[in-house]
Design goal:
This protein is an alpha+beta fold. The protein contains 2 helices and 7 strands.
Length: 152
């Protein structure tokens, strides 16, 4: 079972933040990524590299995975993913959730990304279906997003 929990940005110490996830929009539309090895979609994001701040990780991942060259980026909250099973103690990992408004893209994407998809509605084939829709719901709940969230 996967549980997604949310915390204020300052509640979890920075060193515990392993991931940066970005809910990206451009011209009032969603921006999703498709990894070259998958047929599903995801929001931009990924692991924090050694020596990076979580903001630097978010900026790097957004550029690599969408080709964004001009954007604004704002932190929403800390989230955690808690995986529970009957055989193991719960494992909780933390990340920072951001929203981004992308104003310009370059043509080249990072080698691991097959394509980006710009759409007015949410995708229905998620790479992480138990996590990413919850991140979007929480961002709406907190008032960070205002575009429709209906799947295509």
């Amino acid at each position: 079972m996967v549980k997604v929990l949310f915390y204020p940005c300052s509640q979890i110490e920075d060193a515990r933040l392993k991931f940066a996830v970005i809910l990206a929009q451009t011209d009032g539309k969603w921006v999703f990524c498709q990894h070259r090895d998958r047929d599903t979609y995801e929001v931009p994001g990924g692991h924090r590299e050694p020596g990076e701040t979580i903001l630097e990780a978010a900026e790097r991942e957004l550029c690599e995975e969408t080709g964004a060259t001009d954007f604004s980026l704002r932190p929403v909250c800390v989230y955690s993913v808690k995986r529970e099973s009957e055989h193991h103690a719960p494992d909780e990992t933390f990340g920072m959730l951001f929203v981004a408004d992308i104003r310009a893209f370059e043509a080249e994407l990072h080698h691991e990304i097959k394509s980006i998809r710009i759409t007015q509605t949410l995708v229905d084939r998620w790479t992480y279906p138990q996590i990413q829709p919850r991140l979007i719901e929480e961002s709406y709940r907190q008032g960070w997003l205002s575009i429709p969230a209906l799947p295509e």
